[in-house]
Recover the amino acids of this structure.
């Protein structure tokens, strides 16, 4: 089965991040005149429809377990998808994705503020370096709606990643995602009507393609993390930034400058260092467990968050 070894898990993450970039390209090709709120509604609708064949993976005995947190995540997600469309429409593909990758740094800060977690010196360095990198990439004198959209997207991803901790532990990914997007539909539909733009069912094709590729990304991540500890392969997630640079350069003629390269390194390198430290710590704990018990505990990590 794919994902059972470290190498196959890395391949899955590389492919998955490429699929996510295809979704970004689909959104970027819509241009700046896209009816944003209408697109958000159609993408939510398409996602729900695409998950219908997997209805057997939904727990019908408790379909609305964790409803409050699901509803909160759903409405944060509406903001995040809308902001992402704005960012991809106006920013270079690689610039937008570099800011999206700041979400793990925001998670670190929010974990301290909300869950009172303790920061190590490396975590502090990663946060400071990451936010400095964002400033280098965006450069305050150039901040506009696109840059603000990218930042809002990163914050929405971070909040929703933290809220995963509050969801029922026995829910499948299909159950959580389906319920999340079903709860999006009433508010997203109302906002699309309030937007007042002419209805375009042709936009359904783009929304469907975006949903398809993002779901492909999430299933690839799920397979990758199911049998392998996340800290062993999570660095492969950052190949998404490489895909963004290559596709932006080749397809949209967006040549990254030195500001972008320096800022990206300031975001990604500390995160890789944190991942390496966590991997070493996990290895040390595994050795300690083997000395205490003949059966080491399995390491289970949550899959990456939907974009």
């Amino acid at each position: 089965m794919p994902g059972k070894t470290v190498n196959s898990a890395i391949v899955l993450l590389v492919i998955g991040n490429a699929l996510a970039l295809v979704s970004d390209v689909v959104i970027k090709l819509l241009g700046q005149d896209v009816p944003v709120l209408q697109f958000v509604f159609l993408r939510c609708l398409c996602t729900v429809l695409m998950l219908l064949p997997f209805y057997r993976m939904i727990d019908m005995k408790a379909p609305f377990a964790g409803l409050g947190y699901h509803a909160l995540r759903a409405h944060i997600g509406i903001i995040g998808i809308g902001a992402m469309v704005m960012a991809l429409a106006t920013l270079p593909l690689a610039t937008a994705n570099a800011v999206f990758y700041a979400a793990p740094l925001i998670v670190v800060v929010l974990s301290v503020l909300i869950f009172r977690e303790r920061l190590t010196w490396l975590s502090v360095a990663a946060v400071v370096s990451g936010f400095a990198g964002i400033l280098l990439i965006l450069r305050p004198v150039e901040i506009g709606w696109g840059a603000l959209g990218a930042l809002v997207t990163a914050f929405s991803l971070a909040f929703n990643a933290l809220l995963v901790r509050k969801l029922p532990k026995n829910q499948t990914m299909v159950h959580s995602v389906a319920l999340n997007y079903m709860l999006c539909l009433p508010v997203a539909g109302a906002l699309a009507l309030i937007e007042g733009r002419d209805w375009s069912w042709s936009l359904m094709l783009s929304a469907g393609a975006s949903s398809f590729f993002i779901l492909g990304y999430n299933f690839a991540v799920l397979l990758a993390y199911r049998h392998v500890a996340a800290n062993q392969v999570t660095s492969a997630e950052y190949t998404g930034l490489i895909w963004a640079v290559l596709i932006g350069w080749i397809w949209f003629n967006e040549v990254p400058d030195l500001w972008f390269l320096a800022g990206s390194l300031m975001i990604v390198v500390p995160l890789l260092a944190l991942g390496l430290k966590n991997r070493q710590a996990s290895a040390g704990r595994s050795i300690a467990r083997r000395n205490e018990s003949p059966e080491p505990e399995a390491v289970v990590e949550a899959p990456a968050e939907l974009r």
Q: What stands out?
A: The mean pLDDT is 83. The CA atoms of residues 120 and 296 lie 26 Å apart. Residues 258-292 form the longest helix (35 residues).
